[in-house]
Amino acid sequence: MSLEQVVEAHGVRLRPFRAEDVADVVDGCADPLTQRFISGLPSPYTETDARWWIDAGAPAAWAGGGAAYAIADPATDRLLGTVGLSNPVPTRGQAEIGYWVRPAARGRGVAAAATRALSEHAFAAGTARLELLTDAENGPSQRVALAAGFRYEGSRRSAGCNRNTGRHDLLAWVRLAGDPPGPTARLLPDLPDGVLTDQVVALRRLAPGDSELMYRLHSRPEVVANQAPPVPPTREAIERRCRLAESGWLTGDIARLLITDVVSGEPAGSCGLSYTDVASGEASVGYALLPDWRGRGYATRAIRLLAGWAFGPAGMARLTAGTVPDNTASHRVLERVGFEREALQRGRLPGLAGTRLDDLTFALLPAHLR
Question: Per its UniProt record, what PROSITE patterns does this chain match (predicted)?
Answer without folding.
Answer: GNAT (PS51186)
